[in-house]
Design goal:
single chain, mainly alpha, about 75% helix, about 0% strand, Arc_DNA-bd_dom, DNA binding
């Protein structure tokens, strides 16, 4: 399994540690899941935007075809 080193400020690490502890999880698990969630959210937002553009421009695309 590949690894990745990410640098955080002391304040950021404290916040991550507090959130992970509040959820009863390790920092590694908490950060991993947060990154995966952010990637998935980005993909979801992109897909929503693309669907919106396609819907809004459907008539124009039909006339140009």
């Amino acid at each position: 399994m590949a690894g990745l080193n990410v640098r955080f400020t002391d304040e950021e690490l404290d916040s991550l540690r507090e959130r992970a502890e509040a959820e009863g999880r390790s920092m590694q698990s908490f950060v991993h899941d947060a990154v995966v969630k952010a990637i998935n959210e980005h993909a979801r937002l992109f897909n929503e935007a693309a669907d919106h553009v396609l819907a809004v421009s459907e008539e124009l695309n039909r006339r140009l075809a």
